[in-house]
Write a structure and sequence with these properties.
mainly alpha, Recoverin, domain 1, 3 domains, two-stranded antiparallel ribbon, 13 helices, disordered N terminus, Defective in cullin neddylation protein, UBA-like_sf, ubiquitin-like protein binding, DCN-prot
């Protein structure tokens, strides 16, 4: 992408390093938020950064979607209208990516501070600007480190704040959305859980399932039960091998 831009060699190298020299992903993320990759000079380092966003417009936009009885954008229609204006289906994966980028702490809810910080970081103070960022949001997950960070964020975001674990049905719906085309045994995993699991998913089980999905062979022959896998995954492999043996 360097041939079609005017950024410096230092900026290009900085962007490529952050995305493990993946040119396509680095370009997508650079164009989405070029200031994030700027290499500051000593003279500029002490200066306060100024962004091309209008804080008043960000506040006004928050008021457009804010719930009538609380200072959040949430379940009383505001979040649904926000995604509709953004041209995004509320069931799409990108809604979770936006929540991750806004550092949202409660499912289907943005506080005023989360809204301000998220839009300011992405240099957006209106819906058209944010619409332009949607492809860049999606591109973030092409980098494995970002995907893992996003995946682990979703556990905390999706669970009840009063609970340590993630509700089983919620976990299943989130896995369907996040691990589609990434986990060969996703359908079997869901079937196994629906037959054998009655309570919530722990943080450890959630996190290690991604590692399992990334390493397991299609015949499960490379699974080593002596390694530190959760009991739930040990039991799934027993179930899965029996299923595979019957085919």
């Amino acid at each position: 992408c360097g041939a079609h831009t005017n950024f410096s060699e230092d900026v290009a190298i900085n962007a490529l390093k952050q995305f493990e020299w993946n040119l396509e992903v680095a370009c997508d993320n650079y164009f989405a938020n070029p200031d994030a990759f700027a290499v500051k000079t000593k003279a500029a380092a002490g200066k306060k950064a100024s962004g091309p966003v209008d804080p008043a417009k960000i506040d006004s936009l928050f008021e457009t979607y804010r719930d009538p009885d609380s200072d959040v954008i949430g379940s009383e229609g505001g979040m649904e209208r926000f995604f509709a204006d953004l041209g995004v289906d509320p069931e799409e994966l990108v809604t979770l990516i936006i929540a991750w980028q806004f550092k949202a702490s409660v499912l289907n809810e943005f506080t005023r501070d989360e809204w301000k910080e998220g839009l300011t970081y992405w240099k957006c103070d209106d819906i058209p600007k944010l619409k332009e960022k949607v492809p860049a949001f999606k591109a973030l997950l092409q980098e494995p480190h970002n995907f893992k960070e996003f995946y682990n964020f979703v556990f905390a975001y999706g669970k009840d704040t009063r609970s340590k674990g993630l509700d089983l049905n919620m976990a299943i719906e989130l896995w369907k959305l996040i691990l589609k085309d990434k986990f060969h045994f996703l359908d079997m995993w869901i079937e196994f859980l629906q037959k054998n699991r009655k309570h919530s998913i722990s943080k450890d089980e959630w996190a290690l399932l991604l590692d399992f999905a990334n390493m397991i062979d299609k015949d499960m022959s490379n699974y080593n039960a002596e390694e530190a896998w959760p009991v739930l995954i040990d039991e799934f492999v027993e179930y899965g091998r029996a299923q595979l043996g019957d085919k």
